[in-house]
């Protein structure tokens, strides 16, 4: 609710967001995290009070020396004064250590908790969320945003509390000692607060711009560094350097604006400090001359002046951090409050061992309103059969695969696995029984073994090797420097496209899913590897899953040569089934499929299928 309100305010006018009550709501939520570590907070607070009181004591000792010891020539007591200051310094050091350590611990633990919560929440969010987000921005949330909160909690907030405690102690004493002089000291305070406000408002705008420009720089970095291959292939290095330079320039200008304001602010505050000093010096000296104030008292007043003005100065510094942290909080909590589009029901069922009957019942689906991808789409895949989806790019083939794994929910109609509506099932029980070898073969950073085992964590080395052999990957793996223990880089950059795909097939083999989705699994292969992969895929598709029969397979392919053995080929166009049948039957029909085959110069292999088994494995049509 709170977050929705914040989001609404942000939509209405992002610039005013932080000036409205939302800032307090954001900090309220942040404090909720901080207050989970009460032990550290109490220790920190006690230390802060200790430090403040000890600091107040030192000018008093100075006053005592000037007013009492010096006139009385008490040489004997000087040593004790010296010793007591050393003792105070030691105590100050101890309190300062306890303050820094306990508050830093609170900060670190808060950040640990926040980062964990955020990551857990990100894992729960639907795929659609990540498709609409820039990775750089998300990374910034987990790193920079979280870090700026850490600085706020551990350093800036602690400093402010310390200053407020000191301020209260000093002002109380000063009023007791000389209320008229105290009023004079405090005279400059409202001006300082006013100036801080004025600068704060301007700095807020400058900060926001600097933050946005900083995010542009990191987004650009993230996007270009992960796409180096495309940049180099298009010889676009110069273009990217220029683009980066532009972003960097804007970032520089935004930061220079912040620096300019900040640099102007400090001297103004310093000037006010000197004004306060002049008041105390002139008025104090006047009072000393009139015999209403001792020299020691005046010296102490001058020392306290700094302590009174410090909070105003620190507050301005804190405003700086608060603005930065408010923006960070806003983004963090906004992410934490994002509800996953696709949610598991609280009473979701565990899908029993899958037989493989997948049914789309009059499904309507659109990624964005008004742009339908599937309309009244119906299809039934029988257990143990292989169904191939073919059709022009954008026809909706991958969308069907994404719906089958419940990455998205249809807007209308139902999708059933063995008679269970996917929306009634737990994610784990569904996805654990489905295997996907997709167009983009993503490899995790780790060894070859880790990558194969990722399909089923905890699997034995023997199973990994059996899978690798079946996927025709064992040969190239053993040729790698450390064999199965070779580290493969981010996205498997050290492996060829064909090798990556064979690892992905081995991963799927290890998982041994009852239902398999191959999304253009042989796309990045040369003819030789394709033959190897085809053999591996055949083994994968016709494996013996827990159901005891053939695996149920949904194959998406552009290259029609890879689907000719399918029990049924479904030809899609604009999200509609236009033809369905075996390879041979469809060729004989001389329709869209035959056109597609001709378009690819594909030579029919009549032995691949049999005219008599048209539509085996598929029932419903569009
Ligand atoms: P290809 O063979 O090129 O992979 P396809 O037949 O698999 O194409 P889909 O990827 O399912 O087609 O896309 C169907 C339509 O949905 C296209 O118009 C595409 O632009 C759109 N689309 C696909 N993914 C998304 C997405 N994540 N967000 C918005 N629109 C999408």
What are the salient characteristics of this protein?
single chain, 622 residues, alpha/beta, ABC transporter transmembrane region fold, 4-stranded antiparallel sheet, 19 helices, 62% helix, disordered N terminus, disordered C terminus, binds adenosine-5'-triphosphate
Q: What overall geometry do the principal axes of the alpha carbons give?
A: elongated
CATH domain class of the domain at 22-336: Mainly Alpha
Number of helices: 19
Instruction: Name the bound molecules.
Output: adenosine-5'-triphosphate
Indicate the percent of residues in helices.
Answer: 55-70%
Radius of gyration: 35 Å
Q: At CATH's second level, what is the architecture of the domain at 22-336?
A: Up-down Bundle
Number of strands: 12
State the strand order across the main sheet. 6-9-10-3-11-12
Oligomer: single chain
Which topology of the domain at 22-336 does CATH recognise?
Answer: ABC transporter transmembrane region fold
Main beta sheet strand tally, sense and closure: 6 strands, mixed
Q: CATH superfamily name of the domain at 22-336?
A: ABC transporter type 1, transmembrane domain
Structural class: alpha/beta
Question: Roughly what fraction of the amino acids lie in strands?
Answer: 5-15%
Residue stretches low in confidence (pLDDT < 50, at least 5 long) are 1-21, 544-548, 602-622
Distance between the termini: 42 Å
Mean pLDDT level: 80
